[in-house]
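1st attempt posting a full record on here, be nice pls
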Amino acid sequence: MDIESLSAVRESALDYFVRSRAIQRRRACLEQPGADEAEGWGGIAALGWPGMLAPESAGGLALGLDGAAEILRAAGEHVAPEPLLAVAGLSALLLARLGTPGADALLAELVAGRSLPALAWQESAGDLSAVPLACGCEVRPGHTGGVLLQGEKLMVLPGAAASGWLVSARGEDDAVLLWVPRGTEGVTETLVPLVDGSQASNLRFEQVALPPGAVLAEGPAAQDALRHALAAGQILQSAELLGAGQAMLAQTLAYLRTRSQFGKPIGSFQALQHRCVDMFIHLEVAQATLNEVLALAAQGLPADRIEAEASRVNARCTAAALQASRASVQLHGAIGYTQECDLSLFYKRVLCLSAWLGNVSAHQRRHASLSGYAEATAGAAEWQGEFPRTADWSAMPEADFRSMVRAFLQQCYPPQLRYLSHRARWSEMREWYLTLSAQGWIAPAWPQAHGGMGLPADKLIAWIEELEQHGVARAPDQGIVMIGPLLIQHGTPEQQQRFLPRILSGEHVWCQGYSEPNAGSDLAGLRTEALPARDAQGDHFVVNGQKIWTTLAQDANHIFMLVRTDKDARKQEGISFLLCDLRTPGITIRPIHTLAGEPEFCEVFFDNVRVPAENLVGKLHGGWTIAKALLGFERIFLGSPKQSQYALGQLARLAQARRLFADPVFAQRFAALRLDVLDLSAAYTGFANIVRAGKPLPASVSLLKIWASETYHRIGALLVEAGEEQGAVAGDQLLDGQSFNVLSPLIGSTAAMIYGGTNEIQRNILARQMLDLPA
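the predicted structure (as tokens):
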């Protein structure tokens, strides 16, 4: 569905749940044990929602998984008590996919709202397998033979409201799907009250005799339909969890804005603001992951792939909702611990959903088992022929694009530069930079009109992943990732013609001049001064002052910088943005060594430095607007999955060499980190699409920088732990014939949480600009 249609579905769902007093009805279920879960099903049926996933030929709405996800997300935001997920989700998905006469007849009853079939598939606690093992059936031959069913099923939802059960069983040779109506002799049902006020059933089948028509499907078709239905249901469950988490954040923010202590709203306390920001970040990453998985599911993936993606999004949304529920109760204080507070309804609903259809750890394990460790196992490329300078990259299949990039790297990237543990210097990377430039691939994210590749977001992610898997070092690239995009958006045509081609060719190597002593994250506190002047050579600025933490300034020949051009104006209003040739007289550069002993940063001193007036970007005194745009580019760059993917690849290399994947504790931690990186890529894609569309980046881009750097740090910490004694060894080591440095990612990630605005400053930005919390 398109964005407008999805928005309409969501608004309709929200309106219904408000009008039907869904929150109050959920409370009634909690306060009246044994209440009828299906009491509001008539209203659901009137909207056609039982058939939201059924085809139009069956009288359904055929909304698709993305449309149904909007309804489930709205249900989560209002803790709706109706068993939408169980009936209109799981059961309808299964019956629609089967398409047999018996299944079609049941689906018609479901769509009409006359029947609420429940899917009975689980046989042991925590089991995600769709293969029945203990519950068996004997299909007797002939038209009158019937079926004999024996076994047990657990956690069947809905409980007492179910009209009957769709039962997966093991036949003589393969899986069998059966319809068992309520009231069938030999079925024993034990109702299990759940924490959110709903019910589940545990079922026991004792020599249950069923007619031949009870068999809905057998063999591979039955197994395939069940696997797809469960995976799609887990995706829809993710949407409901996300909605509940988002509602809890909204309730918490409203409370923090109005509750006062010590004479001020508690939402002004930084500690509480940062807790809310962390809730927001987890939920935003979960939303990005859900969007990506829904788009993938629409492509009709095979069963193992859709199961892997379902586990990925379910693990992410469950973790985000659980984190939101716990933080919300804490931030509400004593009132949050009471059942009188509506927050308790959401808390209990999240507990229920997070335990059904697989918990976080189970889904992390299943994703790992289904998808493997691709970071460490990328094989030889199968690309044949020339490497095109330009192409319709959007139309190229991703597998072909990856194969092309992989083959190019294998043929052209210098082997001695793979897996460098230090920040590469221009002298090391110059030839590789020129190789990419000659190929036309040096600026993958730039528009083709300005000499870039113009990669769409999905291909840009693939590009990043292939470079990291191959161990490609990062060249000095401030020109490519920062000043180039800025000039494309804000530079004059003359500036674009003058500077962009020289960035692409490597003639101009750039560094950034933002930070100053005592003005690190307080960027508006800078004091480097640029005074307008005129002489026989024309209009210019005279610059005096100092910049610090200037990355690889000793390798650059140009610097872009913020300077103060009006000392009397307000801090942000007297700043301008200048471009300067570092070979100009009056400039001194002094390297600063990092924790790793590398001269990565520099101090840059300006003593009466003459900068031509045409090097002013934007208006005089209008540099703060330019600076904010550039900070957006910097934060999306710092939020790139590159560093985390590289570190994860290093961790996988070490783990394979030491057979650490055989350790279940390590394997679980690695699986969780791998999903953190994958879901970072999903969030990054959304912001990359904004840049590609030429739109300004929102303040929420700060969440990328936080998630990326802290994920990078967690990977680095596990790498040092996994390295054991090697975690204390300085410098490079050898691993399978390639250089390897156990400490490099941890030390690098420590810096990543500081530069570009510390993560604490990023949290402050999000608290003010995205969450509207008081100062």
